Amino acid sequence: MPTCSNTKCNKETDRLKLNYCDCCYQRFHKYGDPNILKNGIKLVNPPDKLNEQQHNILTALMLGDGFLRREKKGSNANLSIVRQLFDIDYLKFQHEVFKNICSDKAFTTGEVFDKRTNKTYYNCRLRTAALPAITQYHNKWYKFNEETNHYVKIVPNDLELNAEIIANWICDDGTLALSKKGDRIYSGIAVNGFTKDEVYFLQDLLNKRYNEHFTISKSNITQYNIRGADSATRTMLEDINSIFPISMSRKIIWKDILKADLYKIRSRKLPKEELSYNI
Questions:
Q1: What's the angle, vertex CA 195, arms to CA 190 and CA 197, rounded to 5?
Q2: CB burial class (10 A; 0-12, 13-18, 19+) of residue 37?
Q3: Which of 38, 139, 190, 235 has a CA positioned 20 to 30 A from the CA of residue 23?
């Protein structure tokens, strides 16, 4: 019979989840540590609201890889982030940002064996305490689907972008590529989890902020990417360059491009009907 991979448990069970027994899996899923007790995540004098940097980075995480977990409608939400281990420095940076709403067990590393690929994957994760200050964001970024009995992430229609939000959004879901000559740079932002109308709304926010034209492409029937040609990408990078987290240095490939001050190549204009959105 399989045995729980938690060395402090080693319980035999007929069903494992991420190589844990059910009890250890529930603690790992909720708190990021299979050994943590429920009261280990509680904080003394938690803040009533997030500060400006926390707001910006949490907003970027909602656009990207972050997840707000709420067990039931009457409970508070917490923030959960999981990254591949090679991005551990970036997660440590985020841990510092949210440290005042984290327990000492909030940051963990782990590994998961995938039977489909026969490979072990290493990750790091951060899970904050469940607080009213985070529940406020859950109320904005999620709606409850009565049919599936689950919360679904949405884009709030009062969303406003700033340089710090966009920089950390790029850290999560952005890709940057140089031309073969190395004199042009292009960008893409994966927005796969959002509806078509929400994607066009996000495109419009970027267009208005930078007075540029970002385009939209489909990665499959229901998933989209927002793309920036050379001009739009460089205008965006000029805005976020000074605030882009150095802990995500693997994506910082634009320093020489910005120094060169080259002529910006703009993208083609699209018909007005292709730019329409409704949210």
A1: 105
A2: exposed
A3: 139
Q: What is the spatial distance between Cα 224 and Cα 217, in angstroms, rounded to a whole number?
A: 6
The pair of three-digit structure tokens given for residue 98, joined into one six-digit string:
């949210």
The distance in angstroms from the start CA to the end CA of the chain is 52
Ramachandran category for residue 10: left, alpha or beta (phi over 0 → left; psi -120 to 50 → alpha): left
Q: In the sheet where 67-69 sits, what is the strand order?
A: 67-69, 78-84, 119-127, 107-114
Which H or E run contains 122? strand 119-127
Please list the pLDDT of the chain residue by residue as tens digits (279 residues).
677 777 667 677 777 777 777 777 776 766 566 665 444 455 657 889 999 999 999 999 999 999 999 887 788 999 999 999 999 999 999 999 999 999 888 999 998 888 888 999 999 999 999 999 999 999 999 998 888 888 999 999 999 999 999 999 999 999 999 988 888 999 999 999 899 999 999 999 999 999 999 999 988 878 899 999 999 999 999 999 999 999 999 999 998 877 776 666 665 443 333 333 333
Q: How far apart are CA 101 and CA 79, in angstroms?
A: 10
Left, alpha or beta for 243 (phi > 0: left; psi -120 to 50: alpha)?
alpha
**pTM confidence score:** 0.79
Q: Which long-range contacts (CB under 8 A, 24 or more apart) does 197-202 make?
A: 197/277, 197/278, 197/279, 198/154, 198/155, 198/279, 199/224, 199/226, 199/277, 200/275, 200/276, 200/277, 200/278, 201/155, 201/157, 201/159, 201/277, 201/279, 202/63, 202/155, 202/159, 202/226
Judge contact between 35 and 111, C-beta under 8 A: no
Distance CA(96)–CA(195), nearest Å, equals 32
